[in-house]
Amino acid sequence: GLGNVTADAIVQQQEMTVSGEENVPAAEQVSAAQGADGAPAAQEPPTDTRAAAADGAPKEGSNQDTTAVPAAVDEGTKEEPAGGEASAESAAPPSDEKTAEPEAPARVESSFRLPEIDAEFDVWLKGQLDASPADAKDTEDFRYLTFSELPPFTDLHKSLMRKTMTPELFAKLKDVKTSKGYTLSNGMQAGVLRPHLGVGFTAGDEESFELFKEVIYPIVEGWHKFDPNTQEHKSDLDPTKVTMSEEQAALFQKYVKSTRVRAARNISGFSLPAGSSKEDRLAVEGVLKQAFEALPDDLQGTYFPLGGLTAEQESALQAGGFLFQKPGPMQLLGAAGAGRDWPEGRGIFHNEAKTVLCWCNEEDQCRIIAMEDGGDIKGVFGRFCALSDSIKTASEANGKSLMYDPKLGFLGTCPSNLGTGLRASVMIVLPELNKDVHKLEEICAGFDLQPRGSSGEHSAAVGGKWDISNKQRIGFSEVELVQKMVDGITKIIAMEEELAAKNAGGGEVAAVGFKLPEIEPGFDAWLEGQLTASPADVKDTDEFRYLTFSELPPFTDLHKSLMRKTMTPELFAKLKDVKTSKGYTLSNGMQAGVL
Ligand code: ADP
Ligand code: MG
User: Fold this and answer.
1) By the number of CB atoms within 10 A of the CB, which of 46, 113, 156, 482 ranks highest?
2) Is 593 marked as binding a ligand?
3) How much is the pTM?
4) Cβ contacts of residue 370 below 8 Å, gap of 6+?
């Protein structure tokens, strides 16, 4: 019901981003699913960090990229500020900072709009925009901001960048610039403009990882539970090391509709998309095109520049799950500047069967993808590894190398996607587990897997079809992550089969229609005891039983409700035997929040 949806959650749903790995916290994850039926995300009070339900802050108990949140396809337009342009100019406070320096490039006429976040913050932001010098890489629809001071973040700003950025750190790094011209402000821009982002910092080039290390390392640690200061990342692209028994292979062939493995690859010497100049972007495309030409015969295909595709071709590729979408101005990539000069320099390479694909200049310079129908994970991973090797070899033949760091692994735009940058996913139909999405998400989390809907991050699981993939990116090799996915999916299939068998059994199962949830072993045992001890209620039905709690429930960390926060042992003791004349008790009122 509506009672579960906070105003904040509604606003945040409208602000969902679709792009970026912003959605894969390796840390704690409890589902934040299901806005509609009162699962945790929507139930969180407005002050909770959960506000980012849609785009994925790695926050307490949230798996905000969960698929049950409907994708906001048009967040770009929804987020356009209501106010006009020229009128707002005069309303802005006079800025005492000088505007463009004499030798700075002329400022282009701009359709760039600031978001509306909070009245006071918005005024500050407007002042910063007005005072920001023009950047040679500004475009008609995008302006890089230069923050003169640590942004006065609002309660809506949830990112790890915000948590990391102290006034001291800001002061220390604010004038630092990479040789490509990427600044601290550039890296922070998406996180400042889009408060709900979970990471909130983008790298603009390889040097960013060194110069802004003091920002990036804590973010990496917060997101991945991997400390680059003390840990090393290992890559292993030997597909023969993945083991899958014949039994597993048969199970996968039965349940898995399609398999996909992707990762980011960027080339040293060129900016990453958020910091790219037009020249760099085109140069990247040039190097990649040469690399595609040099691929071995079994990986050969054609490169299609995005600008050369008809609208029909583009949407057919998108509908098939083969191609990325244009980033909206207020999505992560748009807000970070990675959507400038769209579609120039972007494109897709694929073979005829569309089992080998490369994206050019979307979130990363290159995303390499292997996919095919069915559940032959070893085969798909093998093709992925061959593609990875070939892109590396072909780049090196051209005198280029891939961005790779011994601590951070493969480098990319978003710190949430470092290390392997690998996402190995299966599309799998799970009709039984689909009946309790919240539980499915918990099960996945237990295996370090992440469920997404049938058409990508933030989409719904149509017909019980899920995209389930590894959740971790760094600290494990590619082989290890694929193996974890294979083994986790095997267990999930076993659970699905068990449930199906139970439900098909009918008889005794149907007679006891009421089932307790599985929340946490200790709590579950307590709940079972309460159920057994609860007296029958005349209003009980075949499929529902009213519980009578004998004591304040031993709530778990998963219990997020205001009821839980309100209910003290004293209050419980005081009201536990109170009954309305209609027979409704305190336990009756609490039951949903406990279960
Ligand atoms: P990524 O960040 O890995 O690119 P997205 O969630 O943005 O993932 O999805 C990209 C596209 O790939 C979507 O259209 C999605 O449905 C598709 N996709 C993901 N996994 C699979 C799979 N195993 N089989 C087929 N299509 C898939
Ligand atoms: Mg993506």
Assistant:
1) 482
2) no
3) 0.71
4) 260, 261, 262, 355, 356, 357, 380, 381, 383, 384, 387
